[in-house]
# Entry
Amino acid sequence: MNAATLTLDAVAFAYNGVPILDDLRLTVGEGEFLCLLGPSGSGKSTLLRLLAGLESPQRGAIHWFGQPIAGPGIDRGMVFQDYSLFPWFSVADNIALAIAKAHPALSKARRRELAREYLAQVGLEDATDKYPLELSGGMRQRGAIARALALGSPMLLMDEPFGALDTLNRARLQDLLLTVWQSATPRKTILFVTHDIDEALYLGDRVAVLGTAPAQVIADYPVPFDRPRDRRPLFTSVPFHQLRETIADALSADTVAHLN
Amino acid sequence: MNTLTSISTLPEAPAVSSPSMARRGFQALWRWPGKEATLLFTGLLLAWQLGATFFTTAANPLLPTPLRVAEALWDALPELWVGTGSSLLILLPGYLAAVVTGVVTGLLVATTPGLRRAFFPFARVVAPVPPTVYIPYTIALLPTFLLSAMFVVFIGAFWPVFQSAAAGALTVEGRYRDNARVLGLSHDEYLCKVVFPASLPHIFSGMAVGLAFAFILLTVAELFGANAGLGRFVQYYADFADYPRMVAGILYTGLVTFLSLSLLEHIRHRALFWLK
# Structure
């Protein structure tokens, strides 16, 4: 792992008096692909909102390149589950909005040109003038990824971005995300929230498991599989199954512990 | 044989096909989507004709027959046409000014906590005042009838637009706000590119209420001091007991209002194409 670029130290957050996160500690290295895994309601999304600066922790500190996170900033791109694009703008205009923020000096024509390039990168070159309503869920998420890329942020925060997609589209977008991530230098740091263990193990360099609320990181596993990963051999390999079982056990042990 | 067969088959063919065609035509009419509305209109027209025939005496022609009203409408069309122009000259500036100021102030007030605390209680007290009560005062206060009528239309249309714009801005979904924040949009950009489009569905319903109000106030204002216009037309012929023209004026005013609201609905549909 590279030097830690993101550190969360004893972070606590409560929503309307209900504790969501408590004494959460986590470090993420530069260019690392970290998957956050946890049962629903475990505060995974809350954690991402804290990192995005949309919420502030009540206790503890979050540092990003040595600086505390004080609010939202375009140095962190966010991909939501199904609503990253404004429905009243065309796909290209949505992307151009992000480009205008990342490169305020560019002319309008150049911004649109760049928007086209980003859309081509996610396979949406034929949908630039379409509106989000006209797109399938998978195409909308491609657009959301293009927008996050267009912001040019070194960190991507992804909140179950493929959770609403069918299996085929989900696999396609996972591969797209990996291609985009691996082709960029320097690599972006990605925090990817999911509740799907297979997805976490296919995508991540590391998997951090959150427990039931108030959540902490209850387990943290490096994912040792070589890249590029190939689904079929990976999903049938023994090490994959062992790690999968270990993580599933950690999750269910935590659930059982909270039931008693 | 030839003639025999032709004689025996010829009359049969239409005898079989004509009732089935008639039935098909009847079925098509029955399936016609506007049939209930057409039935109601025809029924009302019949009731009007019957009422006019049985209850109206020559001495008191309060209820002219539909045909007489149609004739009066035809005769009065040039005058009504001029009246429409005169009325729209009051309605459009007043209404458009109300829409622009209503949307701008509604969005600004709703998104600025200080203004919200100042204006919301004020609006709650002032908005329910029936705008017609301002008419005598504005006529006294403003130099011309045209200006006072425009102002009254403005007041009538302003509050519905203001309130709907404010309601739209207050109910902007959290996800749009989150997106604006992670994109680092400035407050002005947030207002123009997020709050305004997100509030458009609310704004359009306020605009429709405002337009209906504007027509009411326009015609009421015209009763006070206009020398042309739709409300004035109706009042003028009522004063002369020319009821066919008066009823024609009522129907015509209804048509103009209906067409204006339909046009607004059309614009709404076009502007909100991105909605589900």
The two ends of chain B are 68 Å apart (CA to CA). Chain B touches chain A at residues 175-176, 178-179, 181-185, 193-194, 197-198, 200, 273-276 (CB under 8 Å). Residues 1-16 of chain B have pLDDT under 50 and may be disordered.
